[in-house]
């Protein structure tokens, strides 16, 4: 999406604003399916925690995607967006048995990642098919917060607990129809991922009635010029060959599943914010925008990089700016970044704002969350309204009468 289109959208819908390019989402989906075209049965389950807007879910459903969910609310969103229950996998962590049973009652694929719940669920519902999430003890991820396959992770059942796992399955007579792993986001080394896959294949041999093996996701996308990314084409060739060999040895064709989230939507997203103030200090030039980490927390939470462009002056002379927000504490999007010359009123576009950006937004400082727009076939569609003061008050219960009663007793004995 070019800068003139983004600027036009910002003028139509205002800022701050999230904009998603439907064409980019579609092309990323096709790129991944093409990389694994030689797998007879492939299922891509979009990890909707990355971006869960209903219209984005409908778009991915129209492309043929399945859905990866981590909460009962995401399951319900998926059903509302038109996904069939059997196309949804539910992979929670640390939730109650009651929530898992609620998801099972909706007919979605259950994925369990701890022995306690596995035993409880298997004892009560031995006939409901269950996938098991394994922790392969393989480290992946560019930040400790998104590395979930290492030995100290809270996610998954340790490969060292396989004997205990098999004992539970044998005693409960559970129906295990899938094996799953997720090493974490930002896969940098394909060979490390393939090594983890071998652990999953070895684990799968213990179960004779599998329908699928789920390799999670974590495909890295570039966040800046020259940045490295996961070579999904190379991974596709190597893993396809090994997966097809495993299926031949296993004795029946299985479905190869992935759960791409960031890969599908990150590069499709742009966050637009207007510059309120350009402030020169003794050593820094600050560009202060009408937003903050209440709208885009990743730079402050993960130290992530988002390329920033001045769409109001895309050809201007580059200067160094620190882009900061309006939140009442340290709130930095970028430090000493080269950006085309900025003046007050300009609109800045933050790239790679499709994944884990709006979904992590909040009302901190009692600020409104921004609107969202989907750009589809040359037309900008509003897919979430900008919040208002009524939204801030929504669900709050005003107990003013309590304090009126207190006021009447002040000064009395």
Automatic annotation (TrEMBL):
Pfam families: Orn_Arg_deC_N, Orn_DAP_Arg_deC. It comes from the Bacteria. Pyridoxal 5'-phosphate binds at residues 218, 356. Its cofactor is pyridoxal 5'-phosphate. Gene3D superfamilies: Alanine racemase (3.20.20.10), Lyase, Ornithine Decarboxylase, Chain A, domain 1 (2.40.37.10). One of its GO terms (molecular function) is diaminopimelate decarboxylase activity. Keywords: Amino-acid biosynthesis, Decarboxylase, Lyase, Lysine biosynthesis, Pyridoxal phosphate. GO terms for biological process: lysine biosynthetic process via diaminopimelate. Its EC number is 4.1.1.20. PROSITE patterns: ODR_DC_2_1. The modification N6-(pyridoxal phosphate)lysine is found at residue 49. Pathway: Amino-acid biosynthesis; L-lysine biosynthesis via DAP pathway; L-lysine from DL-2,6-diaminopimelate: step 1/1. The keyword rRNA-binding does not apply. It catalyses: meso-2,6-diaminopimelate + H(+) = L-lysine + CO2. Substrate binds at residues 298, 302, 329, 356. Residues 18-354 form the Orn/DAP/Arg decarboxylase 2 C-terminal domain. The keyword Nucleotidyltransferase does not apply. NCBIfam families: lysA (TIGR01048). Homodimer. Specifically catalyzes the decarboxylation of meso-diaminopimelate (meso-DAP) to L-lysine. This is Diaminopimelate decarboxylase. The lineage of its organism: Bacteria, Pseudomonadati, Bacteroidota, Flavobacteriia, Flavobacteriales.
